[in-house]
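Re: the request from the purification team.
They wanted to know what the chain is likely to look like in 3D before they choose a buffer screen. I agreed to run a prediction and write the result into the notebook, where they can find it.
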Amino acid sequence: MISTAPRRNSSGLARDIEILEVLGGPEATQNEGLGVIQVAQLTGRDKAVVSRSLATLADAGLLVRDEVTLGYRLGARLYALAARTSESRLVSASRSHLRRLALSTRETTHLCVLRGGNVLTVMSELSPHEFRTTGWEGVTTAAWRTPSGRVLLSDWDRASLSRWYDEHGRDVAIVGPTDPVMARTGFAVLRTPPEDKAVVTDFESLLDELARIRSRGYATLDEELELGVVGASAPVRDLTGRIIAAINVSAPKARIGERLDGLGRYVAVAAEELSRQLGVGHGVG
């Protein structure tokens, strides 16, 4: 016989979810959080019950309470859980796109995300050529020195960029897996790009490059990170239109020649296709 009794604590969980939805809504966003009375009014529940629920959710890290206003807002742990789910879906959805791009360009492709001051390559598809750039999976390097990193920063406002640059603007690049030192030792080493190849040298030149990326829809790199290696990157967006990743194609300069901008446009099309699969343009209004 199938029991029709409600699951244990299911009503409490439903009430907690309702609170999270209220604190993720426009009222909370506009006011940078809501107090107990406001949450009680919006949920139509008793103030004392709401207060206990808010305190429990805050203890779990799902909410954070402002010590001055006493208002509650969504906490870092909730965002971290959402990011894991989002990134898992991103990697899964990206695999076929990277594979098609690697086959059509016959060059190595990468999926990159931002980690603090660094770009992390979470997935690579190798070129079928015997002479090729290799995969960077699990490798990080200074974001502002790479086309993918600049793409990932290109939708930030100036104030956020300034704070970020103050912390990370002196980070040095990491030589990738194609470098002979790493090939011999198994460890990445640090170096600065050749001075005559550097496009970004300070905060103002970073802003100029980000403006170019927004205008063109992609970023390029011409031997700035490694001699003889060029690349192009384009933004991947989520359903809200926010840039969450970058697709990159890297190749020996001898094969790409004068076609680097053409490669950039091609990568941008692939990134747009992946963004559409992730729901860009269909976000909640």
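For the purification team: The first helix runs from residue 10 to 23.
Please add any questions underneath this entry.
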